[in-house]
């Protein structure tokens, strides 16, 4: 995010009083009407108005319905923040003085569909004209310090509702239907300055909901916001409290962080504050000690650089091809981040001052599987990321092109549908500052990809199968389905990979030759 700077305090900032009604009116006729605004805040408000233009009819119509029923309504949180940033929000979040049953009454006849998202938390969802809205009763949450969930207490005014929100940039509201901008915690100034702080003290905010510490790291990645010293100190001192949050919620925040524009910023914040020790401890463990006698690459910094380089290689939406990886891609980013986590456990100091990490890809794959499972990632994601970590060193056996066609076929077959990911991960894993070495590695991988393309064209490499299927194997050998048939199939697959297409007759002869040596054939 690149925004003009802005300062708090003194003249030139938006005026706010202690009255809930204070704020600035957003006028469609003149664009914006501000109270002594700074230029930067005026520009941000103008941008917000332009961003909200497509949905303004809905906002005023819905606000009018609540006003006519005697209730307050305000657009709040992410949609307001994103409007200032020129970003679109797929959903619209509102807060209201109305109770859940009153919300449903107002929506009756207007919403095409309504649903109960969490009545106990005061939230009702609705759909109208292609838009999804969530409307929540004013809240004044109280938290049990030993619980993962808030004890809900409904509030009676917008100011109290905003102070319980996670960060000031999410504590801005647009009162409806008048389009009055309400910003009691100067979130707009923080957004313009690129800083992230809390409406309440950071300690109270993070004690109320420890997941907010993960959100701070996520917003560093997604929005480029820098946490204040107070927020950083609170995160460092309260990192242990993250342990009461469910693995699923932590996982979701980590995924959003990784899918942001600058994951490195968020990950570095997690490591510096100790949050990473609670979420993915293998990452800070990569900060291996380097003494003057045993110099080697900083594995932690290397991993973050590999992640950045992998992101740079992601394909743009709409790209086509057998090995495209359209970004942002969670599997590729997780694999890039975790590809070397087996190094600390396998580090050995060799005679002469060298350092080795033999089989770190095998150890790393096991650690990756365990960590992703503990974070409750789905099976497909765990399997894919683990496989990429396991395969990320395979290319280094290619040398300067010594692999046979058989080895190339196995490389493609072992990667399967992840071949595009493996291409990008392998290329990203080169972080050498030696320009000649980097260029040599790139040329060598170019050569490997060219060979893969040639074999694909000749052999339909992506669908390599034995030249006899299971039924045909059973017919030739006169056997029934079972373990023996499975062994025969694997043998013919190995022949196919080693020799390429040999034709049905040759495949059948190879099968009979193999069968003659099997103990079952002797019985």
TrEMBL record:
Region annotated Disordered, chain positions: 1-20
Keywords assigned: Magnesium, Metal-binding, Nucleotide-binding, Nucleotidyltransferase, Transferase, tRNA processing
EC number: 2.7.7.72
Cofactor: Mg(2+)
Entry keyword annotation includes Zinc: no
Gene Ontology MF annotations: CCA tRNA nucleotidyltransferase activity; metal ion binding; nucleotide binding; tRNA binding
Domain named HD: residues: 299-455
Pfam family, one: PolyA_pol_RNAbd
PROSITE patterns named among the record's database cross-references: HD
Annotated protein name in UniProt: CCA tRNA nucleotidyltransferase
């Amino acid at each position: 995010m690149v925004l003009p700077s802005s300062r708090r305090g003194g003249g030139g900032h938006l005026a706010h009083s202690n009255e809930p009604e204070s704020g600035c009116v957003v006028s469609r006729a003149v664009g914006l009407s501000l109270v002594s605004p700074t230029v930067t805040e005026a520009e941000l408000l103008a941008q917000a108005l332009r961003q909200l233009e497509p949905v303004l009819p809905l906002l005023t119509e819905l606000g009018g319905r609540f006003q006519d029923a005697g209730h307050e309504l305000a657009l709040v949180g992410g949609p307001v923040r994103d409007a200032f940033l020129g970003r679109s929000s797929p959903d619209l979040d509102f807060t209201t003085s109305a109770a859940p049953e009153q919300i449903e009454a107002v929506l009756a006849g207007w919403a095409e569909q309504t649903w109960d998202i969490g009545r106990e938390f005061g939230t009702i969802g609705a759909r109208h004209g292609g838009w999804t809205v969530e409307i929540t009763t004013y809240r004044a949450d109280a938290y049990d310090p030993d619980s993962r969930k808030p004890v809900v207490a409904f509030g009676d005014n917008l100011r109290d509702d905003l102070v319980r929100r996670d960060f000031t940039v999410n504590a801005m509201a647009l009162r409806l239907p008048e389009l009055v901008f309400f910003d009691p915690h100067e979130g707009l100034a923080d957004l313009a300055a690129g800083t992230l702080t809390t409406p309440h003290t950071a300690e109270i905010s993070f004690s109320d909901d420890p997941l907010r510490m993960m959100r701070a790291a996520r917003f560093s990645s997604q929005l480029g916001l820098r946490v204040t010293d107070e927020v950083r100190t609170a995160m460092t001192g309260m990192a242990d409290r993250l342990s009461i949050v469910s693995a699923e919620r932590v996982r979701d925040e980590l995924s959003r962080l990784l899918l942001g524009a600058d994951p490195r910023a968020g990950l570095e914040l997690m490591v510096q504050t100790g949050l990473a020790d609670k979420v993915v401890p293998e990452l800070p463990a990569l900060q291996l000690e380097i003494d003057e006698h045993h110099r080697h690459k900083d594995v932690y910094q290397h991993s973050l650089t590999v992640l950045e380089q992998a992101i740079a290689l992601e394909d743009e939406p709409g790209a086509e091809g057998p090995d495209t990886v359209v970004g942002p891609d969670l599997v590729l980013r997780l694999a890039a981040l975790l590809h070397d986590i087996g190094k600390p456990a396998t580090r050995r100091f060799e005679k002469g001052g060298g350092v080795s990490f033999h089989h770190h890809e095998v150890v790393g794959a096991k650690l990756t599987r365990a960590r992703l499972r503990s974070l409750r990632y789905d099976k497909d994601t765990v399997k894919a990321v683990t496989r990429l970590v396991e395969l990320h060193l395979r290319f280094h056996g290619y040398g300067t092109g010594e692999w046979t066609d058989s080895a190339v076929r196995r490389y493609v077959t072992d990667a399967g549908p992840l071949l595009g990911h493996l291409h990008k991960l392998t290329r990203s894993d080169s972080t050498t500052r030696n320009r000649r070495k980097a260029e040599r590695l790139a040329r060598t991988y170019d050569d490997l990809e060219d060979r893969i393309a040639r074999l694909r064209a000749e052999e339909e490499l992506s669908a390599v199968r034995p030249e006899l299927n299971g039924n045909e194997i059973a017919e030739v050998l006169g056997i029934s389905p079972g373990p023996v048939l499975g062994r025969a199939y694997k043998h013919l697959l190995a022949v196919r990979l080693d020799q390429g297409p040999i034709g049905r007759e040759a495949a059948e002869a190879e099968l009979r030759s193999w069968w003659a040596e099997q103990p079952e054939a002797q019985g």
